[in-house]
Design goal:
The structure is a single chain. The protein is mostly beta strands. It has 2 helices and 18 strands. The protein has a single domain, classed as Jelly Rolls (Sandwich). Strands 1-16-13-18-11-10-9 form a 7-stranded antiparallel beta sheet, covered by helices on one side. A hairpin with a 2-residue loop joins strand 14 and strand 15. The chain is globular, with a radius of gyration of 18 Å.
Length: 289
């Protein structure tokens, strides 16, 4: 780490964040320490976080990632994202939007039952209990002022797995399902991403990417620096930051993916359409994130 960099702490659990620059006058560059280290403190600057132990991620048992496992950031991430075992609670308040993606098992809240693969956008305005058993990814974000001021907003919108078509590209090596976004009036996107293909280096101007890895084994490259990414770890990628993904041979990624604000996910539609039309897979952008 360069001596001129200084980190500022921001409490966001489960998903790590980027580092800050101080007096050097450079643009902010995220720094990536090993994710096999102990849970970060206010003086570290991880962009990846996972099980709360110093054990190797290859042997550490999966554990829910707790809100408040403080990463540090030069720019505050727009959302608080958590991988959690059920039951759990969403600490919602007025003008807060939340998304729930059921990874495994079954969850219930506000009179709705969600199965693996389902997702729900909530605007409850108060804490919500998520009951059931299994694993979920939750995301909390401040609602846009114009949406918060609206007279009526649906308290919940459920998106069933069966209602979201699977998009494929890279000769079937990559798959995505677009679940929460423009159709629900959400300022952010949430969907599923799976596949075994590597992801070439790229960036998203103006949007954060948050990748909650359910199953993963490989190397995540952020701004030129490498770190291992494993199961039940999450990575925050700031806007306009180059990143790439190299899976281990024979491994496959299964993740919940978020963009804030929404928009970059539309390239999955273009990639799938190009493949359906017979274009060379990945000819528009690298497959994946």
């Amino acid at each position: 780490m360069k001596a001129c960099r200084a980190a500022s702490a921001v409490a966001f659990g489960a998903l790590a964040v980027a580092a800050a620059l101080s007096a050097c006058g450079e643009a902010a560059r995220p720094e990536v320490p090993p994710v096999t280290a102990a849970r970060p403190t206010a003086t570290t600057d991880p962009v990846l976080s996972g099980p709360a132990s110093g054990a190797s991620l290859a042997t550490a048992p999966p554990a829910p990632i707790e809100a408040g496992a403080a990463p540090v950031a030069a720019r505050e991430p727009p959302m608080k994202v958590t991988i959690a075992d059920l039951p759990t609670k969403l600490a919602m308040s007025a003008c807060t939007d939340a998304a729930v993606a059921v990874v495994d098992g079954r969850a219930s809240a506000l009179g709705e039952t969600l199965h693996a693969g389902d997702a729900m956008l909530l605007r409850a305005g108060e804490p919500v209990e998520l009951k059931g058993s299994g694993v979920v990814v939750t995301a909390l974000a401040a609602a846009p002022p114009e949406a918060c001021a609206a007279a009526k907003r649906p308290p919940r919108e459920v998106v069933r797995l069966a209602s979201t078509p699977e998009l494929t590209w890279g000769r079937g090596a990559m798959r995505a399902r677009l679940q929460i976004g423009e159709g629900q009036g959400s300022s952010f996107y949430l969907g599923r991403l799976e596949g075994s293909a590597p992801v070439g280096e790229h960036e998203h101007a103006g949007s954060w990417e948050i990748l909650a890895a359910i199953d993963a084994a490989g190397t995540f490259v952020l701004d030129g620096e490498e770190s291992r990414l494993g199961p039940r770890e999450v990575v925050f990628v700031p806007p306009s930051t180059k990143h790439a993904w190299r899976p281990d041979p024979g491994s496959s990624l299964r993740a919940v993916q978020i963009y804030s604000p929404r928009g970059p996910e539309q390239r999955f539609v273009a990639l799938a359409a190009a493949e359906d039309a017979g274009a060379a897979p990945g000819s528009t952008r690298p497959p994946g994130k």
